Amino acid sequence: MSMNVCSLDSYVQLCYRRPQFGLALTWIAVQEAAIYAEHIIDVGRRTPVERLSHFLLELHERLHAIGRADKTGFALSFSQEVMADVLRMSVPHLNRMMQRLRSEKLIAGSERRVEFGDLGALQSLAHYQPQTLTPVPTPVTA
Question: What is the DSSP string of 114-130?
Fold first, then answer.
């Protein structure tokens, strides 16, 4: 992969010359803005168990969109230390929250696999509104 930096004027001109490119970047920005808004709510309003639940549901949705998760679960590809940092928890506290979700039969699985038990109840606990990560629309040809 390579990255090129361009001026704002050059970017705007590129969008005029290639409107599909501009649409694709705008589409991505809108979806990311919605996700960032959820993360801001995580910091200020959700309890630790709600943050963990929301994180697991969002991660599942993103992995499912790229074919790395099935309907009922997914493999965790990072350590609990990383997850604890992301959720602003200590590792022992994260483990307690995971055990709580397991004891309430909302999730199951091993340390490296998450299986959803009662998806609806988990979504309710997390105040999670599923968002379908939709691809950039393709132009309609007449």
Answer: EEES-HHHHHHHHT---
Tell me the two tokens of residue 136: 């950039």
For 117, the token pair is: 């038990």
Q: Helical H runs in 2-141?
A: 8-17, 19-44, 48-65, 80-87, 91-103, 119-126
Q: 99 with 120, same domain?
A: yes
Give the global pTM.
0.70
Domain count for the chain:
2
Residue from 54, 52, 36 nearest 90 by CA: 52
Q: Which domain holds residue 53?
A: 47-131
Does residue 6 fall inside a structural domain? Answer: no
| pLDDT tens string 93-124 | 999 999 999 999 999 988 789 999 999 999 99
